[in-house]
Amino acid sequence: MTTNKIGLIAGEGKMPIYIAQKAAAKGYEVVVAGIKGNAFAQDYPNAAVFSIFRLGQLGKAINFFKSNGVTRIIMAGRVQHGSIFSNIVPDLRGAKVLASIKSMRPKNILSRVIEEFKKDGIEFASSASFLEDFLPAKGVLSSRQPTEEEQKTIEYGFHIAKQIAGMDIGLTCVVSQNAVIAVEGMEGTDRCIRRAGELVKEHAEKKSAIAVVKVARPNQDNRYDLPVIGKGTLESLIAAGFTVLAFEAGQTLVMDLEEVVKLADKHKICLCAI
Question: Has this prediction a pTM greater than 0.85?
């Protein structure tokens, strides 16, 4: 019988599901704390234990992992940033932590949560644990290469995205000819892309190179909020009418990479790790 255990705080999406699958395949007992409305028991058939928690139930979550003998956990999956204003039901310990946070920036909240778990001997591992093959190295992944104009636009977008990421605003921007069309806020990457698409359709008088660029934060803490793209990101690009998606190499997780590349090639999208 295995003695290896790994805890998982699971949000929305495939990322935590894949982590649970791969960890279990390597012989780990996977203990899952699913965030209510984001993670569902039927998606974790290989979990040794699965329980649902509301955002803010910090003491309950810590006691859950401790009672299951877990000392190392992974936090993965989307939780809409707007939930911090509408969906938090804190327990006593969670309320004390929230009261101690001066700024409700995601980075500040998650850092304090990690500190609180550490007080009880529980450490956080990288969000990319068990998913190392999901981090493409630098290069163009699609059949279509960027044009010279697109390459310049990508480089400009990378510069802008790094700045907004450093201010903890978002990780994605949409740019064209040294102009910023949209930056990601609390709405998330997909809505940012679609909003940019609406702006371009309403106001663009001529076609020009447009790039969607996603990056990691400067000095990214890999224990939380790593940049992630997947088929949904590509579908948002297609809906917006954009044909260039660039992301930071070695720092961005790509879910279902083969399917993403096939979808990019089908729609003649340039997909590159930069």
Answer: yes
